[in-house]
Amino acid sequence: MQDLSQYHHPITDLFPWPKTEKEWEPYRLKNEQVEFFKEQGYLSGIKLLEPHQIEVLKKELDEVADPKHPLHHLFHEFHSNESSDPNTVLFHSLGHWRISKAFHDVIWNPAFVMAASQLLGNKKVRFWHDQLFCKPAHHGGVVAWHQDYSYWTRTVEMQHLTCWCGLDDATTENGCIYYVPKSHKWGLLDKPALAGDMNGLMAYITEEQKAEFKPIPIELKAGYATFHHPLLVHGSYENRSERSRRAFVLNVFADGTISNTDEELLHGVPIINKGKKMEGQFFPLLN
Predict the structure, then answer these.
(1) In this structure, are residues 109 and 15 in contact, taking their beta carbons and an 8 Å threshold?
(2) What is the CA radius of gyration of the chain?
(3) Other residues' Cβ atoms within 10 Å of the Cβ of residue 138
(4) For residue 84, is pLDDT > 90?
(5) 93 Cβ contact partners less than 8 Å away, ≥ 6 residues apart
(6) d(CA 61, CA 101)
(7) pLDDT above 90 for 140
(8) Which of 126, 204, 230, 247 lies at a 20 to 30 A Cα distance from 144?
C-alpha cells in the first residue's frame, strides 16, 4: 500500500481518458454555460459520474472513512465530526485521493477536467485539494455560509475553482448546497467557522449585501456536479431526512498560482516558500 499522490495520471480504467479531439467534444461546456458562470458565480447540473462509478466511489468512501484504515495518516485533515453541535454530525476530510484509487482517478475524470479548464478561462489546471462532506440521515450538521477563498489566501493570485459532486441525490430535505447568486462580486469577506453557526458570516457583510442575500438551493441527482467561483457565498443546512447526503469536492487552481506563505499549505505537505510556484507531488497538472 502506498501514497497515490506519487501518480500524476489515472491508475484504473474507471474514467477513460479521451485520445482525440472528437472524443473530448461531449464534455465541452457551451458558451452560454460559461457566460452564466461568469455572471452568477456558479454552474450546476453537470454530469460527472455514471451509476457504476458512483457505486465504486461509495464503496471506497466507506473504506477511507474508517479511522483505522492503514493509510489514515495520509489525510491532511480528518474530522469524524466537525460540527460544533454535539447533536449533529458532519464528516469532513481532506486528502483521500492519496489513499483511494477511485478518488485518485476522479481528479482525472475528463468531464471534470474539461469543465474546470473552461471555467478557469481555458487555462491549464492544477489540483489543489479534495474534500469529503458527509451528512448522515436524521442528524447531519450544517456547513456555515462562507467563501472558499477566505480559507485559501495562502495561495495567490485568486484563480481557483470548486466542484461539488453528490454520491447521493441532494435535496433541500437532506442538506443540499445553497448558493447566493452574484455574491462572488462582493469581494473577499472574513471567514467564519466552517461547521459553526450557520449565519456567522452575517457579522461580516454590509446592509446592502444582506439585502442581496437570497440563497437558492442546488438540488442535484447523484453523479451530477455544481461548480462555483472561489468568492461565491454558499453553505448547506442540516440533514433531518431519512437519507444520507454524501458528497466529494475537488478544488483546483490555474497553473501559475504561487504560494503566499512560508508555512505548510496542507498538513503533511512539504513547504513551498512564499512566491514559489505551486507544483510538485501534491499539486499535479491535470491537463
Answers:
(1) yes
(2) 18
(3) 14
(4) no
(5) 64, 65, 75, 77, 78, 79, 131, 132
(6) 11
(7) no
(8) 126
Note the pTM of the prediction, 2 decimals. 0.96
Q: Domains in the chain, please, with CATH?
A: 29-259 (2.60.120.620)
pLDDT for the residue numbered 219: 98
All residues at 6 or more sequence positions from 274 whose CB lies less than 8 Å from its CB, including other chains: 258, 259, 260, 261, 262
pLDDT of residue 114: 98
Residues 156, 161, 166, 171, CA torsion sign: positive
Nearest Cα neighbor of 93 from 265, 257, 248, 238 is 248
Give the DSSP letter string of 112-151.
HHHHHHHHTTS--EEEEEEEEEEE-TTTB--EEEE-GGGG
Say what angle helices 110-119 and 31-40 make with each other, to 10 degrees. 60
Average pLDDT, the chain: 95
